[in-house]
Structures are given as structure tokens and as C-alpha cells.
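Retro notes, structure queue

What went well: the backlog is down to a handful. What didn't: a couple of records were mislabeled last round, so from now on we paste the full input next to the output in the thread. Example, using Multidrug-efflux transporter from Flagellimonas marinaquae:
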Amino acid sequence: MSKEVNFRSINQLAVPATISGIAEPILSITDTAIVGNIPVDGLESLAAAGIVGSFLSMLIWVLGQTRSSISAIISQYLGAGRLDEVKNMPAQAIFLNIVLSLLVLLTTIFVIEEIFSLFNASGKILEYCVSYYSIRVWGFPLTLFTFAIFGIFRGLQNTFYPMVIAMLGAGLNIVLDFVFVYGIEGFIPALYLEGAAWASLIAQAIMALLALFFLMKKTDISLKLTLPLNKEIKRLIFMSLNLFVRTLALNAALMLAVREATTLGDRFIGAHTIAVNLWLFAAFFIDGYAAAGNSMGGKLLGAEDYDGLWKLAKTIFKYGMIVSLALMCFGFIFYRPIGQLFSNEEIVLNTFYSIFYIVILGLPMNTLAFIFDGIFKGMGEMKYLRNVLLAATFLGFIPCLYLGMYLGLGFYAIWIAFIVWMMIRGFSLVWKFRRKFRPLVQNP
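Corresponding output:
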């Protein structure tokens, strides 16, 4: 099976996964770019979109980890030639996930103002956060449903249909953003920030419907809930819980960054919103190869093909580094035009330009972490991923952030902490992979 690890097989998974992976950050980036240029209260709207977007990303990442667990189990059973044994598991997993997402939605919708007050939002920014979140939160269960179906396709070694769904959703969101934010004279009034929220919600609903359609038409996996529970549900729950804790730690870092940027002032949270959206865009861009590692890694492990697994890690890392270097070049060449896409506020742009080079220089380290993160998820090594993220956040990111603040580095402290955070994650995963699998490889 190791012969399957080649340029064609990897890129058949990685290229569509890259395109589908950037759909979510494109939704946020589109909102950020269009909202940042609103003629009325553009700075406040940009800050609110950034704060709410960060919080929603946290919720989606925390509860969307079932996608990786489903993918890992399905790919391992596929590699072992025993896929029939887990065909009823995805429906059970998605049902549990949707119930949990509805509980989260109903508990947060009544305390929106209190939630965003914790981010130091106040005045008009807080008012905009409340109105924006009140609309966008209803897309939360829809996104989790779509992500879970993406996990099924990924486990089946198919990233094409998720790409189609993501492209259609992202394209629709961009069109609706312009229509609802700026309006159509005599037909649709300009809704400004709330218009961006409605655009995202409608796009998420369409993506969920498309995901359901492709799953029903293109696979033998049924979403009909049946009992008894599949034997792998217990493992899926524990894997998801480990990723749940891991993602809480991940989002603790992201939320603290938003909080500190908000504390520094409006221009800093505006600049941070631009920077973190670009950081996430690059992350999801690189994540296409991580997705290939996820799908193929689980299948190779299920087949006990350790030579293929070793070859996969080396090859995917090489391709990921090529992508990250291309992104670095693009970032430096278009350093100023990129910022101007997101805001027309000179004070925000100057603040953003002061740290953008740190974001760009950190891309190779991000690649190392993301590639091996995907491989480890495919192999079901969720416990180790949890421990790495806890150590990186609480022994790396947080001490570095507040030491930098204490030393008077201000906005720079946030992005230096991100670099340290990713270094710990990347090197820890490489060390573990080499230690565990090199002794099993016959032809390294």
C-alpha cells in the first residue's frame, strides 16, 4: 500500500481539501474586508466582527472535533477492509453533536452581552457584538453538521465533494455580503454589520443542505439513527473529549490574544482582527496537506503499513513547506495591498503593518505543527495532541504573552507568543512521531 503514497494520491486529497478548508476563513475574511469598509462606524463594526468571529470560531472548533474522530475511525476501518462494521456510527455521532450544539446555542443566546463584556467590549462595539452574534449563532449547528459530513468524506479518502460544497458556500457568502451589507438601491436596504451576519447564516444553511445531498447520493453511509450504539462510539467519544479539551486550550490562547488586543485599544483589535484572519487563512490553506495526512495516515495505520506512514509524513511535510514558502513570498510582495483590502482606517493599517511580518515569518513553523497535527488525528492519537496543546498554551503561550506585556512589548507580545506556541506544538509532534514509528519502519 505504501506505493499509494505519491504526488498524485496526496494531491488528489490535499488540493480539494485546501480549497474546502479555506472556505470558513474566507467567510470570516469576507466579513472583515467588507465590514471594515462600511462608511458608518467602520472601525467599531470591524472590531465587533473580529470579537464575535473569534468567539464563534472557538465554539465551532471546540465542538467540531467529532469530524476528526469520525474521519480517523472510518479511515482506519477502510484500511483494514472492515468498513461495514462502522457504517451506522456517523449518524449516532452527528446526532449527539447536534444535540450538544443546540444546548450551547440556547445557553449563550440569553447572555450575549455578558459574554462579550468579558472581552472588554463596551459601548458601540458591545452593541454591535450583540446584534451580530444574535444572527450568526444560528448557523452554529449548521456548520457542525456540515463539518461532521466532511469528516465522513475525509475518512472515505474523498475530499472532492467537500471542496464543491465549500466553494459554493463561500461564493454565495461573498455575493450576499455585498447585497446585504451595502444594499441594492430601491430593493434591499443597507444592513451594514447585520447584513454580513445574514449573509453568513444563509451560506451556512445552503452548505448544510448540499452536504446532506452529496452524502445521500454519493456514499452508502446512512444518517438514519439506529440502535444499539456502534462499538466504536465509546472510542469516538473519548477521542472527541480529548480534542475538546485540546481545543479549549487552543482557544484559550486565541481568546486571550483577542482580550489583550481589545484592552490595548480599538486600533489594536482592528489590526489584530485582520492579522488573525490572515493567520487562519494561511493555516487552513496549509491544512489541505494536513487533511491528506489525516485521511491517508489513518488508512495506512489500519493496514499496518508503517513504511508508507513514514514516507507519507516526509512527503506531505515537503509539499506543505513549499506551500508555506509560496505564501510567505506572496505576503511580503503584497504587504501593503493586503492590509488595504480590510480597512480604510490609516491608524488600523499602520498598526497591522507593524506586526504583519511576524505573521509571515511564522508560516513554516505553522506548517510543521499543522501537518503532523493532521497525521496524528488520522492515527487517533488524540490524547497526545491534547497534552501537547495544554503544554504549549499554559507553559508557552500564556507566560510568553504576559512576560511580553510586562516588558512593555504591547501588540508585539501577542504575536511573539503565537510563534512560541507553534514551535512547541510542531517540535513535540515531530519528536513523538519519530520515537514511535521509526523503529517500525523497515526502509526509512
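Agreed that this is the format going forward. Reviewer comment attached to the example: The two ends are 15 Å apart (CA to CA).
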